[in-house]
Amino acid sequence: MTAVAPAPARPDRPVRHAGLVDALRAEWAKMVTLRSTWITLGVAVVLGVGGSAGISAAAAHAYRQGHIGPRGWQPAQVSLVSLFFVQWAMAVLGALVITGEYGSGMIRNSLAAVPRRGRFLAAKATVLTVVVFVVGEVIAFGSFLLGQVMFGSGVPQATLSNGATLRAVIGAGLYLTAIALLTTGLGFLVRATAAAMAIIVGLLFIFPIIFGAIPVSWLKQVNKWWPTQAGQQVYSQVGPHASDVLGPWAGFGILCAFVAIVLAAAYWVLRTRNA
Predict the structure, then answer these.
(1) CA distance 264 to 256
(2) What pLDDT, on a 0 to 100 scale, did the predictor assign at position 1?
(3) Separation in Å, CA 116 to CA 133, 239, 271
């Protein structure tokens, strides 16, 4: 009986970890295949465009009735008021892209495939930025255009040919993107959707209300420099510049700096804490 010679041993091949392009593809696949992504974005569109239609129609009626005077009428800002509700949907999406992985335990598989924590965070933030910015701009332009239509005849309207108006509409999408990234950073820090949303609610809503208890002279400065309050100037400040608020891009810069700090903290925690 002839003995079969054993197959020659193969040297172990080095494990190939995912590069940045691979990480981007993986994050894109996770983003578009999750049902929660489409539900959240759908809610954002309904709240933004649908809300703008209702608010604009009600505001136009109030204008015709004389409840709003010509000096207080800002048509571009009226049609973008619904973005106050859209930001909550984008914040939820920003949290879910990472807290969902921690909740399901899939974060271990993700980090095994992309062991470089900075690359993993960068890929996730990049995909989220692209998705939220594109959808945010669609919502912003849709809200503005439909809002102007809902004003009807006899009510002053705004046009995108005006530089301040165009900046406000584009800035709305930028603001929504920044809020989503901010909540993603918080999600990395606290690893739970509820906790991340509780913090963002405090930053956007609770703390500005609490600030009302401090002296007026301090309140103006706090409102001027508080990151989320300052960031809103990029889409809400469409009238003459006021001395007690930052300019549109300066205010948005404050928000972006705050987002960068939170993401830097998220990167440090991701590197130093076990999954």
Answers:
(1) 12
(2) 45
(3) 26, 46, 9
Q: How far is CA 53 from CA 57, 145, 214, 234, in A?
A: 6, 9, 36, 22
66, burial (CB in 10 Å: exposed 0-12, middle 13-18, buried 19+) = exposed
Residue 24 in contact with residue 123, Cβ under 8 Å?
A: yes
How large is the angle between the packed helices 163-190 and 248-272, nearest 10 degrees? 20
| Length of the chain in terms of residues written | 275
Give the phi and the psi of residue 270 in degrees, each rounded to 5.
Answer: -65, -35
d(CA 256, CA 143): 24
**pLDDT digits over 64-114, tens only?**
888 888 888 899 999 999 999 999 999 999 999 999 999 988 999 998 889
